[in-house]
Predict the structure.
Amino acid sequence: MMIISLAKNESGVHTIEDHPWMARLEQIPEGFVQVPGALCEKVWGSLGWCDLILSRKGTLRDIIPLGPVVDMEDLRRKKTAEISAACEAAIFAGVTVETTQGPERFSLTLNDQTNLANLALQAQTGAPALYHADGELCRIFTPEEVLSVTAAATRHKIYHTTYVNHLLTWVRRAQTAEELAATHYGAALPDDLARHMDGVLSKMGELYEKNL
């Protein structure tokens, strides 16, 4: 026998009890109503997220299933933290650059970014620099190599910071949990945000080329 509480708990859910021994009960516990056999599957499927429809005699006639109450602001905070962490990881993963040694990988942690910024200033004076690619021994980098690595690193960081800015805009304007779930890092942006991002990156590329 299945019974369901007449009142909802603090979470807005009716308590459902369904145990074989309940068939031996002489009366329904106070605050509960028996669920007719025809409604058992529907009630169980609602997980208690429902409104009860009672007859004049107080018996259960039907239920109106409801979805759980979604705290969109809490979901938004969690999604923002998730996306921000993914963006940082993508930036830190770095870039692969063609050097005099062939393709080499350069991580871009905060410390790496600081080191490369300092080496770029040194390279602009025409001086070589001592540096290393991921997993490689230190070697002398030509000024051209240093500037090539820093240019690739700059483009990489600009792309990801611009993308995450637009992605978080999508997070802020999402109206449903389903829409919010689609806003993972790497997801294709909605058309309007994608067009805006492409325009910003194109303009930034033009300005960057002029200042090389």
Remarks:
- Residues 32 and 197 are 56 Å apart (CA to CA).
